[in-house]
Amino acid sequence: MNGKEEQVAMWDSVQGGDEISIQDMDNQLEVLRELKDDYAAKDKVKKEAYAKLKEQEAKVIGMLERTNKKRYVSDYGNVTLVEELSVQTPKTPEQKRAFFNWIRENMGEEAHDVYMTVNSRTLNSLYKEQSEVAAANGEVLKIDGLSDPITVTKLSFRKA
Fold first, then answer.
1. pLDDT at residue number 13
2. Where in the chain are the domains?
């Protein structure tokens, strides 16, 4: 039996009372293919638009930095430079062990379980919170397993 004959035999043995023809299935696959292609095309456009947006944000950040401005107000919108500390998630097994040991020792077993599968946003939220606590005590935060934080400059843009 060739591939087409196998498909016909499969469709001839449909259970449940509703008949599904090969043409019905082909029609549905045609729609599925068109929708997948449409989704892929729109996803590509979205990614290209995002890249252009980030490029433009970098230009505006550069202009603000070159003029020593933190804020600019315009009829088109208001921009503000916001500086945040950011740390990377641990990459190596040694860094991960050190980080999770630090969590366990400094925050307890429950926190360890929460942060065991930490993503970047959650990690940075934890770092910010703990950094504020350390600063209030006159200390500089150092978490085992994490590299030193870097300052990331982000642009806040709001409608005028």
1. 63
2. 21-69, 81-158
Cα–Cα distance list, 86 to 58, 123, 124, 126, 134 (Å): 18, 9, 6, 11, 16
**pLDDT range class, residue 7, cuts 50, 70, 90:** low
Calpha distance 142→10 (Å, rounded): 63
**Structural tokens at position 151:** 């300052």
- Cβ–Cβ < 8 Å for 100, 85: no
Burial (CB count <10 Å: 0-12, 13-18, 19+), residue 128: middle
For residue 50, what are its two tokens?
């995002």
Residue-wise pLDDT for 138-148, tens only, equals 999 999 989 88
